[in-house]
Specification:
single chain, alpha/beta, FAD/NAD(P)-binding domain, 2 domains, seven-stranded mixed beta sheet, five-stranded parallel beta sheet, globular
């Protein structure tokens, strides 16, 4: 049985915050579009994350265009609150989301694109890829050399301490997520952490200079300024700054810090200083890697991210990307910052 072919002006691939925000602007412009979401429900990508996860930004900066986030100023929403907000957003604006659709291949043919999915086949004049900043968990290849007795899990699959077996735990990766998981586990497990913590944004700056700080990172830390371009290089290659947690918190919790894991020795993790520790669990808080191999055209650079100007593909006309890290500025990958990029893309689609 052949799949049904459906034609659209715009197809948005991904139903997270970037896809929804782009849909909001396209609807206001009265464009004919559809959003394809591989999940069964809006917000599921948030619901699947670990139980105690809170956003790194306060509620007043967690809104998508047109709908204020329903939580008090200065509070940090949990992952379920964000999931429910996104679901409310899609309903509030009656955005045309089709669920359970996984895109397998995207190709171009003359003046249109062809999207092959697990169900239907779609044709579109424009494509917006909004698959998020965390496409594929990144785990080093040498993980396969570790002892089979070690329980291994990526941070994306971690939910709560009850999932972790008894015994010592090593968290690999000292960005915000890795530190928060390590702190949570340290209450019930002897916990170690590997890696160099990134720069910590002082808590008092967020507490007393929050609005100015947000204005600064939104308007100054962008690809338009020298300091912004320098920050982009550091973040793309080295990770985002620490928010709410710091290396000092690790020390206060009695979590021993190790350098970067360099490989294995006798089935156990080995570090750059030649030390080795025996643990029962390793949590890989090592981030994610982009994967656009399902796009037929070669649209990426050496980092694996698409070559664009503010989300407009530099390789293929009619192809756009939304929600990428530092797409225009430091806030591009945040819920409260994605709207600016979404509007820029929607306007470009309207005008071309």
């Amino acid at each position: 049985m052949e799949t049904e072919v459906k034609q659209w002006d715009v197809v948005i691939i991904g139903g997270g915050q970037a896809g929804l925000a782009t849909g909001y602007f396209l609807k206001n412009m009265k464009r004919r579009f559809i959003i394809l979401d591989e999940n069964q429900r809006t917000g599921d990508s948030w619901r699947k994350r670990w139980d105690s996860l809170m956003l790194f930004t306060p509620a007043q900066h967690d809104s998508l265009p047109g709908l204020t986030f329903p939580q008090s100023k200065g509070s940090f929403p949990g992952k379920d609150a964000m999931a429910d907000y996104l679901e409310q957003y899609a309903k509030e604006y009656a955005l045309p989301v089709k669920y359970g659709i996984r895109v397998n291949h995207l190709s171009s043919n003359n003046d249109h694109f062809e999207i092959e999915t697990n169900e239907d086949r779609f044709l579109a004049h424009n494509i917006v890829v909004a698959t998020g900043t965390n496409p594929v968990p990144k785990i080093p290849a040498f993980s396969s050399e570790l002892s089979h007795d070690i329980f291994q899990i990526h941070s994306s699959a971690y939910t709560n301490p009850g999932l972790i077996p008894q015994g010592d735990v090593l968290v690999v990766g000292a960005a915000t997520s890795g530190i928060e998981i390590a702190l949570e586990l340290s209450k019930n497990h002897k916990t170690y952490i590997s890696g160099s913590p990134t720069f910590h944004i002082p808590d008092k700056l967020l507490e007393y200079g929050g609005e100015f700080y947000w204005w600064l990172i939104k308007n100054i830390i962008t690809i338009k300024t020298p300091v912004g371009r320098k920050a982009k290089e550091k973040i793309i290659h080295g990770g985002s700054p620490l928010i709410r947690v710091s290396a000092r918190d690790l020390d206060l919790a009695g979590i021993r810090r190790y350098p970067r894991v360099s490989g294995t020795k006798d089935g156990y993790p080995a570090f750059g200083d030649n030390s080795v520790i025996k643990v029962k669990t390793i949590i890989w808080a090592t981030g994610y890697r982009p994967d656009f191999s399902w796009i037929e055209d070669d649209v990426t650079d050496e980092t694996g991210w698409p070559v664009t100007y503010r989300g407009i593909s530099s390789v293929k006309s009619g192809l756009y990307f939304a929600g990428m890290p530092f797409q225009f500025g430091l806030t591009s990958g945040l819920v409260g910052g994605v709207g600016r990029d979404a509007e820029f893309i929607a306007r470009h689609i309207r005008n071309n």
